[in-house]
Amino acid sequence: MADHSLPPGSWASSEASRAVMLGNRGRDTSPELALRRALHRLGYRYRVDHPPIPELRRRADLVFTRRRVAVFVDGCYWHGCPQHYGEPSTNAEYWRSKIARNRERDADTDARLRQAGWTPVRIWEHESVDDAVVKVACALDAPG
Ligand SMILES: [Zn+2]
């Protein structure tokens, strides 16, 4: 999970960007819920908000323990989606480094999971449920 603490001062210059940031905080955001529902309907069973590897101390949004697949639904803002991340006009330096740290941590998490024999699946929150289901299903069906 990303660190969602906010910087001091007036960091959100527009109501729109503020709404995006607030909407991306925390769990049970609607894209993740929609994906969970779709997978469940298809008969998939998984753990929710679960650490794939306990010693890693990082949770995945959906975890398929037996198949060793860890799914992360990444917020477009916090994880720096190339399509939707727009740099705020205030505190730009703060946000640039914060998003960069989040992205580094995402990459580090993926690398550690792969080393441990897991398959990380990254899904942007803007992706359609159908696309997300295909990504997860492909990871689950892959050999190994
Ligand atoms: Zn996006």
TrEMBL record:
Keyword DNA damage recorded: yes
InterPro entries: DNA_mismatch_endonuc_vsr, Restrct_endonuc-II-like
Top-level taxonomy: Bacteria, Bacillati, Actinomycetota, Nitriliruptoria, Egibacterales
Top-level division of the source organism's lineage: Bacteria
GO biological process: mismatch repair
Identification of the protein by name: Very short patch repair endonuclease
Family the entry assigns: Belongs to the Vsr family.
Molecular-function annotations in GO: endonuclease activity; hydrolase activity
Record keywords: DNA damage, DNA repair, Endonuclease, Hydrolase, Nuclease
Signal peptide range: none
